[in-house]
């Protein structure tokens, strides 16, 4: 769906799958169902920021910094955050796609907040919101500017926030 959700028809999806439209509709009655299944697959894949946060072999502060890391060199073109993209294409807050994207964004803040809490931050939720805002902004700018390393700017700002919010050096 690199062309955008609304610009991609079910016929195009069926052609690229490759399955018949009949088979596609047997599994997904509506485009909304297909989009949500795609987003759920991304969330489960470990290829989103959630995968970065779940790496228990990496210290908590470093996981937070990796929210702003550039993707692998062989990655597809920079497309921004798929959940923000989906919410933008389904702007009605009551739509199923927009609601799912919102749930994922709220879940991401909870996942982020667990790390500063582990590091002794007194206000982990506030810091998590700030870091999520930086990550979302960096993803959007990286997409618009087609700069996969744009996160370096947000990472520098995140370091300042972490230094200010965490006791000691925050490197537990």
TrEMBL record:
Superkingdom of source: Bacteria
Supply the InterPro entries for this chain: Homeodomain-like_sf, HTH-type_TetR-like_transc_reg, HTH_TetR, Tet_transcr_reg_TetR-rel_C_sf
Q: Which UniProt keywords apply?
A: DNA-binding
Which chain positions lie within coiled-coil regions?
none
An example Pfam family from this entry, by short name, is TetR_N
Q: Where do the HTH tetR-type domain residues begin and end? A: 1-46
Q: Which residues bind DNA?
A: 9-28
Q: Which PANTHER family match?
A: HTH-TYPE TRANSCRIPTIONAL REGULATOR RUTR, HTH-TYPE TRANSCRIPTIONAL REPRESSOR BDCR
Instruction: Name it.
Output: TetR family transcriptional regulator
Query: Which organism is the protein's source?
Result: Streptomyces daghestanicus
Query: What is the taxonomic lineage of the source species?
Result: Bacteria, Bacillati, Actinomycetota, Actinomycetes, Kitasatosporales
């Amino acid at each position: 769906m690199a062309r955008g959700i609304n610009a991609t028809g079910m016929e195009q999806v069926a052609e690229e799958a490759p399955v018949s439209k009949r088979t596609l509709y047997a599994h997904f009655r509506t485009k909304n169902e297909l989009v949500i299944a795609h987003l759920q697959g991304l969330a489960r894949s470990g290829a989103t920021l959630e995968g970065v946060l779940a790496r228990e072999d990496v210290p908590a502060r470093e996981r937070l910094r990796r929210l702003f890391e550039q993707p692998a060199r062989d990655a597809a073109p920079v497309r921004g955050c798929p959940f923000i993209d989906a919410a933008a294409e389904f702007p009605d807050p009551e739509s199923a796609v927009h609601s799912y994207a919102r749930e994922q964004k709220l879940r991401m803040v909870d996942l982020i907040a667990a790390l500063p809490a582990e590091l002794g931050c007194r206000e982990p939720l506030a810091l998590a919101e700030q870091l999520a805002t930086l990550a979302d902004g960096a993803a959007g700018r990286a997409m618009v500017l087609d700069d996969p390393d744009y996160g370096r700017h947000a990472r520098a700002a995140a370091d300042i926030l972490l230094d200010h919010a965490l006791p000691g050096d925050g490197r537990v």
